[in-house]
Each structure stands twice: as structure tokens, then as C-alpha cells.
Amino acid sequence: MQVTVKLFASFQAGRFDRGLREYPEQTTIGSVIRELNIPESEVGILLLNAVHADSQQTLKDGDTLAIFPLVGGG
């Protein structure tokens, strides 16, 4: 199945900003994060088709996944 993955801020470094990627059926968001070598502890927001999601959710063909890092500041 094909999933559009969008990475933001520091997650783009050495990767990509937006990519159409191929995954097997029943792939979870957490599997994508691990495949991209992104530490789950650094993930701030996950959006699946513009709706808040969690790493346990299963992706479907045509989905768009956006991964944002934690944001610091004061």
C-alpha cells in the first residue's frame, strides 16, 4: 500500500520532507517511525489524515501521515 509521509523540522535532516512510501498491509504508525530511525521519545505530534493519531494505529492505502518532533521553548 502507498502512504504519504510528511516529516517536519528536525526530522527532515538526512531524510526527506514529504515522500510517497510503500508499506505492507497492517503496518502501524510506530513501525514507520522505527523504519525511519526516529526515536519515539522525540515524537511530539502524529497526524493521520489531519487527525491526531497514536503509534498503535494501522495505516491504510492512501493515508497521509505527518510526524512532528517535540517543541521546546519558554
Tell me about this structure:
The chain is mostly beta strands and 74 residues long. The chain has one helix spanning 29-35, and strands at residues 2-7, 18-22, 43-48, 51-52, 64-69. The chain has one helix and five strands. The termini are far apart.
Rg calculated over all Cα atoms: 12 Å
Major β-sheet strand ordering: 2-1-5-3-4
Work out the helicity level: under 10%
Overall average residue pLDDT:
95
Low-confidence stretches: none
Number of DSSP strand runs: 5
Determine the N-to-C terminus distance.
41 Å
* Structural class label: mainly beta
Helices and strands, in N-to-C order?
A: EEHEEE
The percentage of residues in β strands lies in 25-35%
Query: In DSSP terms, counting alpha (H) and pi (I) runs of 4 or more, how many helices?
Result: 1
Shape: globular
Profile the largest sheet. 5 strands, mixed
